[in-house]
Amino acid sequence: MRTAIGLMGERGYEGTSTRDIAAAAGVSNAALYHHFSSKLELLRQFVQEAHDVVLARLARHIEAAGDDPRARLDAAVETIIASSVHDRWARRAAQVAWRELGRLDEPDRRAIAATRDRMVDLIEEVVADGARAGVFRTGAPRDVAQAVLTLCIAVVDPWAESTKPMAEVIELHQRYAVALADTPSARAGAR
Questions:
Q1: What confidence tier does 162 reach under pLDDT thresholds 50, 70, 90?
Q2: Residue 189: exposed, middle, or buried by beta-carbon count in 10 A (0-12, 13-18, 19+)?
Q3: Would the pLDDT of 117 be above 90?
Q4: Which residues of 151-172 are buried (b: 16+ CB within 10 A; e: fewer)?
Q5: Which residue has the higher pLDDT, 189 or 78?
């Protein structure tokens, strides 16, 4: 699976054949099909596993950050970005995990969407807690949470290769996330 995802991250799903995967992994096509019924099944298993891993990490790191809403939001941003770009393979894998959902069948896409929704739920809870505590001013914690997740996922955009160190990218996105959380909603500003 690691070999397949590395190739898909480099060449794209369509540009990677099962023969390419088997050859790069040093196995026969038959051995590959023994483990996965198809290239799509391999992709499905990987994408679900990748989302599950990030969700579990996100929950752990938010919890470990304690009660301070800013520290918890910083932990959420750092977790998502670091999970996606901590090395070259992680970046390729994240490109596949975050970007190839459209290839999956509808029930599988819904399952992945549910996992992403749980990520948004975790971030929303952090932002809502911060708003209740007066640390953040937003009146739309769900919208902020969705924007933060999207912002963090965009770091792996293949057209946005960064030459900045990962710590600098994380710190920048942490500031963006706080700015989003601290922006009053349009309705609140209109009063």
A1: low
A2: exposed
A3: yes
A4: bbbebbeeeeeeeeebeebbbe
A5: 78
DSSP 184: P
Confirm or reject CATH 1.10.260.40 for domain 47-190, answering yes or no.
no
**CA–CA gap between residue 16 and residue 188 (Å, rounded):** 50
| 43's tokens | 């992709």
* pTM beyond 0.90: no
118-151 pLDDT tens trace:
999 999 999 999 999 999 999 999 999 999 999 9
Token couple for 151: 């912002």
Closest C-alpha among 58, 186, 34 to residue 116 = 58
Q: What is the DSSP string of 11-48?
A: H-STT--HHHHHHHHT--HHHHHHH-SSHHHHHHHHHH
* Cβ contact 126:72 at 8 Å: yes
Structure tokens at 183: 């922006």
Alpha carbons 55 and 57: distance in angstroms, whole number: 5
Tokens representing 101? Answer: 């959902």
Contacts of 97 (CB under 8 A, 6+ apart): 46, 47, 50, 51
Sign of CA pseudo-dihedral 7, 13, 14, 18 = positive
135 neighbors 69 (Cβ within 8 angstroms): yes
